[in-house]
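Quick one: structure tokens for this chain, please?
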Amino acid sequence: QPEAYKETLLPHHVLRVSIEAGTTFGWERYTGIAGLRFGIDSFGASAPAEHLYDHFGLTADKIAPQIVAALNAVPGGGTIAPEPLDPNHPDVATPARSTDPHAHEN
């Protein structure tokens, strides 16, 4: 995918968060260094899902306050870059919708 297209989907000037009921490995590709990644990075835990989610902090009650705190810690309320990309710049044009699954491939 072209970088400009990816930027329209996951802009760098906002806080990116991933929540995965598994490893956080690889999510930094999407969240960036400044993003938050919630998941389970250990092996061997066994219990009913709701107990594991609570133990590993994968509940809305445990995740939401951390996201809010991160947003409040960033000047501009979650905007990481001082200015968002110019939507009129030719490299940031909104991609046309297509039913062709290969329409945005390089």
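Strands lie at 17-19, 36-38.
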